[in-house]
Amino acid sequence: MPLIKAEKLREFLSTSSLIAISVVETENPQGYGRVILENNEVVKIVEEKDASEEEKKIRYINGGVYLFDIEILKRYLPQLSNQNAQREYYITDVIHLAKKDGHGIQAIFLPAENLLGVNSRVDLAKAEEIYLRRIRNRIMREGTTIHLPESVYIENSVQFIGECEIEPNVVITGKSVIVNSKIRAGSVVEDSYIGNSTIGVMAHIRPGSYILNSKIGNFVEVKNSNLEGVKAGHLAYLGDASIGEGTNIGAGVITANYDGKKKYRTKIGKNVFVGSDSQIIAPVEIGDNIMIGAGTTIPSNAEIQPGSLAISRTNLRVIKDFFFKFFNKENR
Asked: Among 39, 37, 84, which residue's Cα sits nearest to residue 62?
């Protein structure tokens, strides 16, 4: 019963009755033991295979949660018999025996979803759907806006603080903390801190990232990195990096953090402009107020003075009429 709530279990502990059982009203009671009630007190529980046709029409079923005083069990368990269709000993017979001796048996009514069992992948999917809906409803009640909530996957361990907005098809997992931020459609955030930032569309924030006052755009992947006041608009990989305020990361930029044996960190200072399609090979430390030209490769341990332009490009060669020669076509 993965969906039963703690407050419902506390109802069992607050009862003065020596016996209490969970009761669920269902449209389709097939396959469950029926609970026979009189004036909202339990008279007995009948297993379906032992139920009469009239008893099978009853829609109150045994939810399978019980509270017994220990003295009740000591007295009645030795009296149980297996003279039934299943040739089994039913703990539910304790209810019948105690009732015959005048003991009151309290029914604790529970919503059906609290007692959903998981016996197949289909059941598991239903339970997950209910659990996720509870999480999303709690988050929205606490002040976060979620668009198309049924499309959003958020784990219970995630925290939202302040004004947050979640667009459709977002996944947020682990111990992520989202503060005054917007997570745009299709983005994934795992075990990371997002503060006063916009993430996505279709961004992937992998574990260990700390992102503050930043804009992370389309198809940007960030892993185990600290970004403060950074703009990375699209199509970049920032792994094992620390990037300072005012820095702009162009499209296609990657921090090459793995040499095949070990991962290394990249440190980029404040007010750095990294041109599109640049590769930064770790370990490397790039200071403040530096421009890196588009298509540049920054080698590991490079030394670049503040205020400099770093650029590495091959010279452009233009070979006249090469296209026509290669394809044996005439120049028209």
From this structure: 37
What pTM was estimated for this model as a whole? 0.82
CATH number at residue 265: 2.160.10.10
- pLDDT tens for each residue of 170-228: 999 999 999 999 999 999 999 999 999 999 999 999 999 999 999 999 999 999 999 99
Q: Give, for 124, the enclosing helix (H) or strand (E).
A: helix 121-141
Query: Are 99 and 191 within one domain?
Result: no
Count CA atoms within 13 Å of residue 263 on its CB side: 9
Give the residue from 252, 247, 246 showing the smallest Cα distance to 280. Answer: 252
Q: Containing domain of residue 84, as a range?
A: 6-115
- CATH classification at residue 98: 3.90.550.10
Active site residues: 234
Residue 328 has pLDDT above 90, yes or no: no
Mean pLDDT computed over 230-242: 97
DSSP designation for 263: B
User: Which residue(s) pair with 190 in the sheet?
Assistant: 173
> Model confidence over 86-138: pLDDT tens digits?
888 988 889 889 988 999 899 999 888 887 778 899 989 999 999 999 999 99
SS (H, E, C) 265-314: CEEECCCCEECCCCEEECCEEECCCCEECCCCEECCCCCCCCCCEECCCC
My answer on whether 212 and 99 are in the same domain is no
Work out how many domains the chain is built from and give that number: 2
User: Is residue 180 included in any domain, yes or no?
Assistant: yes
Among 270, 277, 273, smallest CA distance to 254 is for 277
CA 257 – CA 263 distance, rounded (Å): 5
**Strand-strand pairing, 41-46 and 34-38:** antiparallel
